[in-house]
Amino acid sequence: MRVFITGAGGFIARAVAARLRDEGHQVAGVDLHADEAAGVVAGDITSDGAWQDAAAGADLVVHTAAVVSNAVGLDGQWRVNVGGTRRALDTAVRAGASRFVHLSSIRAFSDLGFPDGVTEDHPVRPDGNPYVDTKIASEQVALQAHAEGRIAVTVVRPGDVYGPGSRPWTTLPVQLIKKFQFLLPAMGAGVFSPVYVDDLVEGLLLAGREPAGAGQIFTLSGGVGVTCGEFFGHYYRMLGRRGPWVAPTAVAVAVARLAGGAISLTGAATEVNAVSMRYFARTGTYSIEKAGRLLGYRPTVDLTEGMARTERWLRAEGLLT
Protein backbone atom coordinates (compact mmCIF):
# COMPACT_ATOMS: atom_id res chain seq x y z
CA MET A 1 0.00 0.00 0.00
CA ARG A 2 1.13 3.55 -0.71
CA VAL A 3 0.15 6.07 1.95
CA PHE A 4 0.36 9.86 1.85
CA ILE A 5 0.27 11.80 5.14
CA THR A 6 -0.38 15.51 5.59
CA GLY A 7 1.30 17.23 8.52
CA ALA A 8 3.89 14.48 8.19
CA GLY A 9 6.34 16.10 10.60
CA GLY A 10 3.84 16.05 13.47
CA PHE A 11 3.71 13.80 16.49
CA ILE A 12 0.85 11.53 15.40
CA ALA A 13 1.91 11.51 11.74
CA ARG A 14 5.43 10.34 12.58
CA ALA A 15 4.06 7.50 14.68
CA VAL A 16 1.69 6.46 11.88
CA ALA A 17 4.50 6.57 9.30
CA ALA A 18 6.82 4.48 11.46
CA ARG A 19 4.17 1.82 11.95
CA LEU A 20 3.38 1.68 8.22
CA ARG A 21 7.02 1.38 7.24
CA ASP A 22 7.49 -1.44 9.76
CA GLU A 23 4.67 -3.24 7.95
CA GLY A 24 6.40 -2.75 4.58
CA HIS A 25 4.21 0.00 3.11
CA GLN A 26 5.44 2.99 1.12
CA VAL A 27 4.97 6.29 2.94
CA ALA A 28 5.24 9.85 1.65
CA GLY A 29 3.94 13.11 3.03
CA VAL A 30 3.89 16.87 3.17
CA ASP A 31 4.82 19.27 5.93
CA LEU A 32 5.94 22.88 6.11
CA HIS A 33 9.52 21.62 6.25
CA ALA A 34 10.87 18.86 4.04
CA ASP A 35 12.44 15.67 5.37
CA GLU A 36 13.90 13.93 2.35
CA ALA A 37 14.98 10.86 4.31
CA ALA A 38 11.39 10.33 5.47
CA GLY A 39 9.87 11.02 2.05
CA VAL A 40 8.35 14.31 3.24
CA VAL A 41 8.16 17.22 0.81
CA ALA A 42 7.80 20.86 1.82
CA GLY A 43 4.44 22.44 1.20
CA ASP A 44 1.55 24.42 2.63
CA ILE A 45 -1.77 22.58 2.42
CA THR A 46 -3.63 25.88 2.30
CA SER A 47 -2.21 26.51 -1.18
CA ASP A 48 -1.91 24.48 -4.34
CA GLY A 49 1.65 23.51 -5.13
CA ALA A 50 4.18 20.90 -6.12
CA TRP A 51 3.50 19.04 -2.86
CA GLN A 52 0.30 17.67 -4.40
CA ASP A 53 2.30 15.74 -6.98
CA ALA A 54 3.88 13.71 -4.18
CA ALA A 55 0.48 12.18 -3.41
CA ALA A 56 0.14 10.64 -6.89
CA GLY A 57 -0.69 6.95 -6.74
CA ALA A 58 -1.58 6.95 -3.04
CA ASP A 59 -4.05 4.29 -1.92
CA LEU A 60 -4.70 5.97 1.43
CA VAL A 61 -4.39 9.59 2.55
CA VAL A 62 -4.15 10.27 6.29
CA HIS A 63 -4.89 13.93 6.99
CA THR A 64 -3.29 15.02 10.26
CA ALA A 65 -2.24 18.58 9.33
CA ALA A 66 -4.00 21.11 11.56
CA VAL A 67 -3.58 23.99 13.94
CA VAL A 68 -3.92 22.34 17.35
CA SER A 69 -4.01 25.23 19.77
CA ASN A 70 -6.11 27.42 22.04
CA ALA A 71 -3.82 30.35 21.26
CA VAL A 72 -4.52 30.89 17.54
CA GLY A 73 -7.41 33.01 16.29
CA LEU A 74 -10.30 31.99 14.07
CA ASP A 75 -8.83 33.18 10.75
CA GLY A 76 -5.58 31.25 11.25
CA GLN A 77 -7.35 28.09 12.30
CA TRP A 78 -10.00 28.31 9.59
CA ARG A 79 -7.37 28.68 6.87
CA VAL A 80 -5.62 25.44 7.89
CA ASN A 81 -8.24 23.30 9.61
CA VAL A 82 -11.04 23.91 7.10
CA GLY A 83 -9.50 25.30 3.92
CA GLY A 84 -6.54 22.94 4.22
CA THR A 85 -8.85 19.96 4.64
CA ARG A 86 -10.69 20.92 1.46
CA ARG A 87 -7.41 21.08 -0.48
CA ALA A 88 -6.15 17.81 1.03
CA LEU A 89 -9.37 16.10 -0.08
CA ASP A 90 -9.05 17.49 -3.60
CA THR A 91 -5.46 16.25 -3.69
CA ALA A 92 -6.48 12.75 -2.55
CA VAL A 93 -9.17 12.55 -5.23
CA ARG A 94 -6.74 13.69 -7.91
CA ALA A 95 -4.19 11.13 -6.69
CA GLY A 96 -6.71 8.32 -7.11
CA ALA A 97 -6.78 7.37 -3.41
CA SER A 98 -9.55 5.04 -2.32
CA ARG A 99 -9.75 6.20 1.33
CA PHE A 100 -9.24 9.47 3.19
CA VAL A 101 -8.83 9.37 6.98
CA HIS A 102 -9.48 12.75 8.55
CA LEU A 103 -8.27 13.53 12.07
CA SER A 104 -10.79 15.64 13.91
CA SER A 105 -11.03 15.85 17.71
CA ILE A 106 -13.21 14.86 20.64
CA ARG A 107 -13.60 18.60 21.11
CA ALA A 108 -16.21 18.55 18.35
CA PHE A 109 -18.55 17.68 21.22
CA SER A 110 -17.61 21.11 22.69
CA ASP A 111 -16.02 22.00 26.01
CA LEU A 112 -19.38 23.18 27.37
CA GLY A 113 -20.64 19.80 28.46
CA PHE A 114 -21.88 16.50 27.05
CA PRO A 115 -23.27 13.23 28.46
CA ASP A 116 -20.92 10.86 30.23
CA GLY A 117 -19.94 8.09 27.82
CA VAL A 118 -20.88 10.31 24.88
CA THR A 119 -21.26 8.48 21.58
CA GLU A 120 -20.62 9.55 18.01
CA ASP A 121 -24.29 10.13 17.30
CA HIS A 122 -24.45 12.91 19.90
CA PRO A 123 -24.74 16.30 18.13
CA VAL A 124 -21.58 18.35 17.78
CA ARG A 125 -21.73 21.81 19.33
CA PRO A 126 -19.94 24.99 18.18
CA ASP A 127 -19.04 27.07 21.22
CA GLY A 128 -17.09 30.05 19.89
CA ASN A 129 -13.68 28.45 20.44
CA PRO A 130 -11.83 28.62 17.09
CA TYR A 131 -10.37 25.14 17.48
CA VAL A 132 -13.70 23.53 18.34
CA ASP A 133 -15.61 25.36 15.63
CA THR A 134 -13.09 24.72 12.85
CA LYS A 135 -12.81 21.04 13.71
CA ILE A 136 -16.58 20.74 13.37
CA ALA A 137 -16.46 22.56 10.04
CA SER A 138 -13.60 20.35 8.82
CA GLU A 139 -15.70 17.25 9.52
CA GLN A 140 -18.49 18.71 7.38
CA VAL A 141 -16.07 19.29 4.51
CA ALA A 142 -14.76 15.72 4.73
CA LEU A 143 -18.15 14.04 5.05
CA GLN A 144 -19.54 16.13 2.21
CA ALA A 145 -16.86 14.68 -0.09
CA HIS A 146 -17.93 11.21 1.01
CA ALA A 147 -21.64 11.97 0.50
CA GLU A 148 -20.89 13.23 -3.01
CA GLY A 149 -19.13 9.95 -3.82
CA ARG A 150 -15.81 11.66 -4.54
CA ILE A 151 -13.82 9.51 -2.10
CA ALA A 152 -14.52 7.19 0.84
CA VAL A 153 -13.91 9.17 4.04
CA THR A 154 -13.49 8.13 7.66
CA VAL A 155 -13.43 10.74 10.44
CA VAL A 156 -11.46 9.95 13.59
CA ARG A 157 -11.85 11.90 16.82
CA PRO A 158 -8.79 11.13 18.96
CA GLY A 159 -8.93 11.43 22.72
CA ASP A 160 -6.16 13.15 24.71
CA VAL A 161 -3.13 11.64 22.94
CA TYR A 162 0.01 11.38 25.05
CA GLY A 163 3.35 9.64 24.78
CA PRO A 164 6.82 10.27 23.31
CA GLY A 165 6.71 13.46 21.26
CA SER A 166 3.25 14.68 22.29
CA ARG A 167 3.39 18.45 22.72
CA PRO A 168 0.00 19.21 24.34
CA TRP A 169 -0.14 16.30 26.78
CA THR A 170 3.52 15.44 27.44
CA THR A 171 6.25 17.98 26.68
CA LEU A 172 4.25 21.18 27.29
CA PRO A 173 2.85 20.12 30.69
CA VAL A 174 6.34 19.05 31.78
CA GLN A 175 7.74 22.42 30.73
CA LEU A 176 5.02 24.33 32.59
CA ILE A 177 5.36 22.20 35.72
CA LYS A 178 9.11 22.85 35.78
CA LYS A 179 8.38 26.60 35.62
CA PHE A 180 5.72 26.40 38.36
CA GLN A 181 3.14 27.59 35.82
CA PHE A 182 0.77 24.61 35.79
CA LEU A 183 -2.59 24.81 37.54
CA LEU A 184 -5.68 22.61 37.36
CA PRO A 185 -9.28 23.79 37.82
CA ALA A 186 -12.10 21.86 39.53
CA MET A 187 -9.62 20.98 42.29
CA GLY A 188 -8.04 18.54 39.86
CA ALA A 189 -11.24 16.50 39.56
CA GLY A 190 -11.95 17.29 35.90
CA VAL A 191 -12.08 14.25 33.64
CA PHE A 192 -9.23 13.46 31.24
CA SER A 193 -9.54 10.83 28.47
CA PRO A 194 -6.00 9.67 27.68
CA VAL A 195 -4.99 7.45 24.80
CA TYR A 196 -1.42 6.30 24.34
CA VAL A 197 -0.10 7.12 20.88
CA ASP A 198 0.47 3.48 19.87
CA ASP A 199 -3.17 2.65 20.56
CA LEU A 200 -4.32 5.64 18.52
CA VAL A 201 -2.14 4.58 15.59
CA GLU A 202 -3.67 1.11 15.68
CA GLY A 203 -7.15 2.61 15.61
CA LEU A 204 -6.27 4.99 12.78
CA LEU A 205 -4.99 2.19 10.60
CA LEU A 206 -8.04 0.06 11.32
CA ALA A 207 -10.21 3.04 10.35
CA GLY A 208 -8.33 3.39 7.08
CA ARG A 209 -8.41 -0.29 6.17
CA GLU A 210 -11.73 -1.71 7.30
CA PRO A 211 -14.54 -1.42 4.73
CA ALA A 212 -16.98 -0.86 7.60
CA GLY A 213 -15.18 2.38 8.45
CA ALA A 214 -16.13 4.19 5.24
CA GLY A 215 -18.44 7.12 5.86
CA GLN A 216 -18.20 6.70 9.62
CA ILE A 217 -17.02 8.80 12.57
CA PHE A 218 -15.06 7.08 15.33
CA THR A 219 -13.93 8.23 18.75
CA LEU A 220 -10.57 6.68 19.62
CA SER A 221 -9.54 7.07 23.24
CA GLY A 222 -8.14 4.71 25.82
CA GLY A 223 -11.67 3.82 26.80
CA VAL A 224 -11.49 5.15 30.35
CA GLY A 225 -11.56 8.53 32.02
CA VAL A 226 -9.25 9.54 34.84
CA THR A 227 -9.07 12.74 36.82
CA CYS A 228 -6.74 15.44 35.55
CA GLY A 229 -5.05 15.26 38.94
CA GLU A 230 -4.24 11.60 38.41
CA PHE A 231 -3.01 12.05 34.83
CA PHE A 232 -0.78 15.07 35.35
CA GLY A 233 0.32 13.78 38.75
CA HIS A 234 2.50 11.30 36.87
CA TYR A 235 4.59 14.17 35.50
CA TYR A 236 4.95 15.76 38.93
CA ARG A 237 6.30 12.48 40.32
CA MET A 238 8.70 12.12 37.37
CA LEU A 239 10.04 15.57 38.24
CA GLY A 240 10.17 14.88 41.99
CA ARG A 241 7.61 17.59 42.64
CA ARG A 242 4.56 17.72 44.86
CA GLY A 243 1.35 18.37 43.03
CA PRO A 244 -0.58 19.03 40.93
CA TRP A 245 -1.50 22.52 42.01
CA VAL A 246 -5.29 22.82 42.01
CA ALA A 247 -7.94 25.49 42.54
CA PRO A 248 -11.70 25.96 42.17
CA THR A 249 -12.62 26.43 38.52
CA ALA A 250 -13.58 30.10 38.82
CA VAL A 251 -10.26 30.89 40.51
CA ALA A 252 -8.23 28.87 38.00
CA VAL A 253 -9.97 30.53 35.04
CA ALA A 254 -9.31 33.99 36.50
CA VAL A 255 -5.66 33.18 37.15
CA ALA A 256 -5.23 31.80 33.62
CA ARG A 257 -6.90 34.83 32.08
CA LEU A 258 -4.58 37.20 33.96
CA ALA A 259 -1.45 35.13 33.31
CA GLY A 260 -2.28 34.67 29.65
CA GLY A 261 -2.97 38.36 29.24
CA ALA A 262 0.35 39.24 30.79
CA ILE A 263 2.21 36.82 28.52
CA SER A 264 0.41 38.09 25.41
CA LEU A 265 1.61 41.62 26.19
CA THR A 266 5.13 40.37 25.48
CA GLY A 267 4.01 39.30 22.01
CA ALA A 268 4.32 35.59 22.79
CA ALA A 269 1.60 33.02 22.12
CA THR A 270 0.52 30.95 25.10
CA GLU A 271 -1.79 28.06 25.87
CA VAL A 272 -2.29 29.48 29.36
CA ASN A 273 -5.79 30.88 29.01
CA ALA A 274 -9.38 30.49 30.14
CA VAL A 275 -10.23 28.07 27.31
CA SER A 276 -7.55 25.61 28.42
CA MET A 277 -8.76 25.81 32.00
CA ARG A 278 -12.32 25.02 31.05
CA TYR A 279 -11.10 22.03 29.08
CA PHE A 280 -9.55 20.62 32.24
CA ALA A 281 -12.89 20.96 34.02
CA ARG A 282 -14.78 18.49 31.80
CA THR A 283 -17.02 16.02 33.60
CA GLY A 284 -17.77 13.44 30.88
CA THR A 285 -16.08 10.54 29.14
CA TYR A 286 -16.16 9.28 25.54
CA SER A 287 -17.45 5.89 24.41
CA ILE A 288 -15.29 3.73 22.12
CA GLU A 289 -17.94 1.04 21.73
CA LYS A 290 -18.57 1.86 18.07
CA ALA A 291 -14.88 1.59 17.14
CA GLY A 292 -14.70 -1.72 18.96
CA ARG A 293 -17.80 -3.07 17.25
CA LEU A 294 -17.09 -1.96 13.67
CA LEU A 295 -13.29 -1.88 13.60
CA GLY A 296 -12.24 -4.32 16.31
CA TYR A 297 -10.42 -1.48 18.10
CA ARG A 298 -9.08 -2.56 21.50
CA PRO A 299 -6.62 -0.25 23.27
CA THR A 300 -3.91 -2.28 25.01
CA VAL A 301 -1.69 0.30 26.75
CA ASP A 302 -3.11 1.40 30.10
CA LEU A 303 -2.09 4.62 31.83
CA THR A 304 0.51 2.97 34.06
CA GLU A 305 2.33 1.34 31.15
CA GLY A 306 1.90 4.38 28.91
CA MET A 307 3.39 6.70 31.49
CA ALA A 308 6.29 4.31 32.10
CA ARG A 309 7.12 4.39 28.39
CA THR A 310 6.69 8.16 28.32
CA GLU A 311 8.99 8.63 31.30
CA ARG A 312 11.73 6.59 29.65
CA TRP A 313 11.50 8.81 26.58
CA LEU A 314 11.47 12.04 28.59
CA ARG A 315 14.56 10.96 30.50
CA ALA A 316 16.34 9.90 27.32
CA GLU A 317 15.60 13.33 25.85
CA GLY A 318 16.84 15.10 28.97
CA LEU A 319 13.46 16.75 29.54
CA LEU A 320 13.15 15.79 33.21
CA THR A 321 16.35 17.45 34.37
From TrEMBL:
GO terms, molecular function: aldehyde dehydrogenase (NAD+) activity
Pfam families the UniProt entry points to: Epimerase (PF01370)
GO cellular component: cytoplasm
Source species, domain of life: Bacteria
NAD-dependent epimerase/dehydratase domain span: 3-213
InterPro entries in UniProt: Epimerase_deHydtase, NAD(P)-bd_dom_sf, NAD(P)-dependent_oxidoreduct
Protein known as: Nucleoside-diphosphate-sugar epimerase
Organism per entry: Actinoplanes italicus
